[in-house]
Design goal:
With 288 residues, the protein is α/β, with parallel strands linked by helices. The protein is built from eleven helices and twelve strands. The longest helix is centred in the N-terminal third of the chain and has 22 residues. It starts with a helix and ends in a 6-residue tail after the last helix.
Amino acid sequence: MLGDAFYKKFNNNYELRCTDIDVNENWLSYLDIRSFTDYRDDVIKFQPEYLFHLGAFTDLEYCELYPKDTYETNTHSVEHGVKIANELNIPILFISTAGIFNGKKNIYDEKDTPDPMGHYAKSKYLAEKFVQNHAKKYLICRAGWMMGGGPKKDKKFIQKLMHQIANGEDELYIVNDKFGTPTYTLGFARNVKLLIEKGKTGLYNMVCQGVTSRLDVAHELVKQIGMNGTIKINEISSDHFEKEYFAPRPESERLINARLGEDGLDIMDDWKTSLSEYLSEDYSNYIN
């Protein structure tokens, strides 16, 4: 999801080398960043001016079931990236997450202390701390509820809803006890690009404007696709999905872009505007 957005926003202005373990685009080449030797050889050969470390397992249930794989991918590979960036004396970009908080506060800014709950959140927070403590130069950007990539790449909330609707479902069951901030991948990549070109470093929250909830997002989506009177939304608690989504999740993952605002560099749109852009860009032909 995110790599696709970064490619679209950076490719016209920069020479890129993009890698993944799933080579599903012609602009990707194979690399397993869990191998320090392979990772280092690939980066050294390209000699970049900046290292973007985007790769991670983000499926919370997978991370609970396979913690060894999770920490190898989400934490140790970041340690590899930091060592390589330090060797080349270049900055590293690391993508963190709103999920590293325990959800007991309503809203979190960059001064709040994380308290991760599950293996996904713990693996990301360990990586975040390693970057802060060991990277010579770094930029950390925390995302919220990610949306982007369309039917082909989106594995998150919006695509799950759109898939149900496209399959003819006229009732959606949406939890009423989870709060957060959507983050449009293209908007996120655009704002990261601005920070890099301004030479900014350190930690930034980077989410769409406007705190919300899963329920609010679902209602807005149905409204924007013109199916308000057609699709019924049923409010439920998270317990309804406890067998399917068993990984611990904070009640609130709401972030505010405090530092972006202070620096006058917050160009993230309101989440409703971003949702509209996303749906019109990637789902215009998805529903017949």
